[in-house]
Design brief:
The complex is a heterodimer of chains A (about 280) and B (about 250).
Chain A (H helix, E strand, L loop, with lengths): L2 H35 L5 H5 L2 E2 L4 E2 L2 H32 L3 H15 L3 H15 L6 H25 L3 H9 L4 H30 L2 H4 L21 H10 L4 H36 L3
Antiparallel strand pairs in A: 1-2
Helix pairs in contact in A: 1-11, 3-6, 3-8, 4-6, 5-6, 6-8, 7-8, 8-11, 10-11
Chain B lengths: L3 E12 L2 E7 L2 E3 L3 E5 L6 H7 L10 E9 L2 E2 L7 H7 E4 L10 H12 L4 H14 L3 H4 L12 H13 L5 E5 L7 H14 L4 E5 L3 H7 L2 E6 L2 E7 H6 L4 H7 L5
Parallel strand pairs in B: 4-9, 4-10, 7-8, 8-9
Antiparallel strand pairs in B: 1-2, 1-3, 1-5, 5-6, 10-11
The chains are: A mainly alpha (about 280), B alpha/beta (about 250).
Chain lengths: ~280, ~250
């Protein structure tokens, strides 16, 4: 065996080792989560209220809270994000405005989420007087999700071949008609994929809702948007840091983590499924 | 006596500081096929795109001179560009059907005008598909995706889509350069049929194609219209040395 072949094997070996290490981390992480979480997991755990100061019972208020926080956040962020992206990619004048907005969006995308939490508290909770509530929390999460949705939408729109817009314009369509009837429908699956991924991200955030929406314990489910809510990520945080009976709380925390993990994985699987079906259908 | 459908009068065009078209005077005659030939980069496609104002999409385009469509200057201020584009249909080099059904592709131009009933649209779609010789091949699957058609079928679909607007002029920008010989032959025959009802301007790199289907030929070189006349005349006794050189394959 000469030196070049040896080097070749050596190089591939090192790459493979790193790959295995990465996968190894993931496997260890998943196995640990399931090992610790599965014993607590049951339908009752998901659909019952907590009892005895969080040391027994289920986590339904947190599941419901996360569902509402995420849904409202996306409901706000989706239209705003998509419309912004349409303006940026299709109209985009004046240039300096577009450039400034893009810098702002990218900065926002890179901002630590705790900053969003503080911002949400300052603006929605205090300044606008929404108090600690579902409303404040979802608005804060919406701001967090917006850069992701804008970037995904811009990317999706840029992926629509220019031929389609040209064909539409050449048939006498206005620019608005071209965007509404040709560009957006073509880009929609990719826009949805991007949005679904941002749902996963939003559902798992703790810091932005800590000061704006989440409460450690609520006896009832949220009835309107001014209520405080429980939420899965914050519930885990609270179980691990507060309370007096860690031996009872820690397993529940793992169970909650597993529920959150499964929720996010399911959502991501949905995104993968959509992407897969597009790739099968599209032929341009 | 042949009437002209489009007349350009001293047309000059700049992209930024780049002077692309120089004093072009060209007539497109009613119900004839006019072919534009010339080497790459001579401005054929740019000129073609002047006739439906597609060049407007390119920033920093400046135009001087006039293009008359019938009695109307299409570059006059306050012209409704969408109406011009409905009257002057265009087919592109690469077949570009929308990722929609066959039916919706052809119906697109009518649907966006919003003044046709469903029934009208249905009959016009059928007429257009028949006129583009595609009806028999697709009548059983009007609602399946246009993307599943072959390249030649897609290009005829694009022709049907343009015809649905009942255009006065059809602009074809190298419509067969992405197609196999058989599909090409079909589109050439189709042009000869279509010229009974519409004026056709076709840009082509294929000199033989221009000879086969056109009544008039325009030769462009470096942004100038070097020669324009009846195809037999241009091909047999070119009036300009550059035309002769191009036609005999000295360059191009």
């Amino acid at each position: 065996m000469n030196k070049r072949t040896l080097n070749n094997y050596l190089g591939i070996g090192i790459l493979a080792a790193f790959l295995l290490m990465t996968i190894g981390f993931l496997v260890v992480f998943l196995v640990r989560m399931f090992y610790k979480g599965l014993p607590v997991l049951s339908l009752n755990f998901i659909f019952r209220n907590p009892r005895e100061a969080m040391t027994a019972g289920g986590i339904f208020p947190a599941v419901a809270g996360t569902f509402w926080l995420t849904s409202l956040a996306i409901l706000v962020a989706f239209p705003l994000g998509v419309l912004t992206a349409i303006y940026l990619s299709q109209y985009g004048k004046p240039r300096w405005l577009v450039r400034t907005v893009k810098v702002a969006i990218n900065t926002l995308a890179g901002t630590p989420s705790i900053i969003f939490g503080l911002f949400g508290m300052a603006v929605f909770v205090n300044l606008m007087g929404f108090d600690v509530s579902l409303l404040s929390g979802s608005l804060t999460l919406a701001i967090l999700a917006m850069p992701m949705i804008i970037n995904a939408t811009e990317e999706a729109i840029r992926g629509v071949p220019n031929d389609f817009s040209e064909a539409s314009l050449a048939l006498g369509a206005t620019k608005r008609q071209t965007i509404m009837k040709v560009v957006l429908p073509t880009a929609l699956p990719s826009i949805l994929t991007g949005t679904i991924i941002s749902i996963g991200r939003v559902a798992g955030e703790t810091a932005p809702i800590m000061f704006t929406a989440a409460t450690f314990y609520s006896r009832r489910l949220p009835h309107n948007i001014t209520d405080e809510v429980m939420a899965l990520p914050y519930h885990i945080y609270a179980l691990m840091t507060e309370g007096t009976k860690p031996e009872a709380q820690v397993p529940i925390a793992y169970g909650t983590a597993l529920v959150l993990l499964l929720m996010v994985l399911t959502i991501s699987a949905g995104a993968v499924a959509i992407r897969f079906s597009i790739r099968r259908k599209r032929k341009w | 006596m042949v009437n002209s459908r489009i007349n350009t009068e001293n047309l000059n065009l700049w992209f930024g500081k780049n002077h692309v078209l120089h004093d072009v005077n060209l007539s497109i005659y009613d119900k004839k096929v006019t072919a534009m030939i010339g080497p790459s980069g001579c401005g054929k496609s740019t000129l073609l795109r002047c006739f439906n104002r597609m060049n407007d999409l390119i920033p920093e385009t400046r135009i001087e001179g006039r293009i008359m469509l019938g009695e109307k200057d299409i570059y006059a201020p306050k012209t409704d560009i969408t109406k011009i584009r409905a009257k002057v249909g265009m087919v592109f080099q690469k077949p570009n059907p929308f990722p929609k059904s066959i039916f919706n592709n052809v119906a697109f131009g009518l649907a966006i005008q919003g003044k046709y009933s469903k029934c009208d649209i249905h009959s016009r779609v059928e007429e257009s598909l028949k006129a583009a010789w595609l009806w028999d091949e697709v009548k059983d699957r009007l609602h399946s995706s246009a993307m599943a058609l072959s390249g030649g079928q897609q290009q005829r679909l694009c022709i049907a889509r343009a015809l649905a607007n009942s255009p006065e002029v059809l602009l074809l920008d190298e419509p067969t350069s992405a197609l196999d010989p058989q599909s090409t032959a079909k589109i050439e025959e189709l042009c000869l049929e279509l010229k009974k009802s519409v004026s056709i301007l076709i840009v082509t790199h294929n000199i033989a194609q221009a000879g086969r289907i056109s009544d008039y030929t325009a030769f462009m070189y470096l942004g100038q219209l070097v020669e324009f006349g009846k195809t037999e005349a241009v091909f047999t006794v070119p009036g300009d040395k550059r035309t002769e050189a191009y036609l005999t394959g000295v360059f191009g």
